[in-house]
Structures are given as C-alpha cells and as structure tokens.
Design a protein that fits this description.
Blueprint: H1 3-6, H2 10-47, H3 55-65, H4 70-84
Helix pairs in contact: 2-4, 3-4
GO molecular function: chorismate mutase activity
Domain Chorismate mutase: 7-89
Organism: Saccharothrix espanaensis (strain ATCC 51144 / DSM 44229 / JCM 9112 / NBRC 15066 / NRRL 15764)
Amino acid sequence: MNSTDTAPANEDIDALRQEIDFLDAEILRLVKRRVEISRTIGAARMAAGGTKIVHNREIDVLNRYKELGPEGRDLAMILLKLGRGPLGR
C-alpha cells in the first residue's frame, strides 16, 4: 500500500473544502443567532432588575464545551463574550 491508496484525490479534497465552507457559513449563522438570543436575555434580565451575567449558567456553557478539550473552553469563552455585548450598560 502506498500513500496514494490512502490519500484523498484532488476531487475529494475540493468536495471536502466545499463542505467546510458550507459548515463555516452555518456556524457563523448559528453564532449570530446565539449572540442575538443571549443579548435579548441579558437585556430582559437587566430590565427586570437582575444582572446581565448569570455565572452558574456561564459555568454550564464552559463545561459543555470541555468536550472539545482546552480549545473548547476558549471557544465557549468567546461565545459568552460575544453574547454579553458591552458590559456596564
């Protein structure tokens, strides 16, 4: 068995790249929706006299992304920051 037996053909690579492009677009759409929902929740909580951030909820999100390893935690932190919007308002 040589390396060409296991390596994907150029057509396969192109198809896989197209799938990645599709997935990236879908991820962006979902992140934007997540941010929108998170900011709506934060605004509603503040309007009701609560805090913008619920630490227990954020810990739950961080724990969920641990499945991806250390970078998963970083990704969760970025998503949480995007959803918070500017703090102090």
